[in-house]
Amino acid sequence: MDTLIPGLLNLAGRRLDYLAQRQTVLAQNVANTDTPGYVARDLPPFAAVLADADGTLRRVSPRQFPGGGGVPGSARIRPVAQQPDGNAVPLDVELSDIAAAASDQQLVTNLYAKYVAMFQLTLGHGNG
User: Fold this and answer.
1) What are the respective helix, strand and coil percentages of the chain, to the nearest 5?
2) Read out DSSP for 34-90?
3) What interhelical angle do 4-31 and 91-122 show, nearest 10?
4) Distance between CA atoms of 66 and 119, rounded to whole angstroms?
5) In whole angstroms, how far apart are CA 104 and each of 8, 36, 61, 71?
6) Tens-digit pLDDT profile for residues 48-105
7) pTM (2 d.p.)
8) Are 88 and 80 spatial neighbours (Cβ–Cβ below 8 Å)?
């Protein structure tokens, strides 16, 4: 059996997992826009995550994301100018990134649904 469709489904699933984790990181940034000394974080690009040997996002130090259970440790500090209180969360950038990630999630979800429909049609389980 050709592994193209299952491979595409796996890739789409991994992309959705990545986007969900990125939304978590971005939401933490927005939640801390008024926290003195807080520095915005973001995940590496998805291509870099795919290049990882096993492809999983994980915490590499227990000091990363204190109190943020479930947030991947591969998130990195986003270099931006700090406000006088030491906060470095540009709200406009965070909201733009959240909108982009939501758009990506919708795109991948639609592609995933198309892949499943093609797979079902190939197996003779289509709606027709």
Assistant:
1) 50, 5, 45
2) TSTT-B-EEPPPHHHHHHSSS-----S-TTSSTT-TT--TT-EE---PPPTTS-B--
3) 160
4) 42
5) 16, 31, 29, 19
6) 877 764 545 454 444 444 433 444 556 777 766 677 777 878 888 899 999 999 999 9
7) 0.69
8) yes
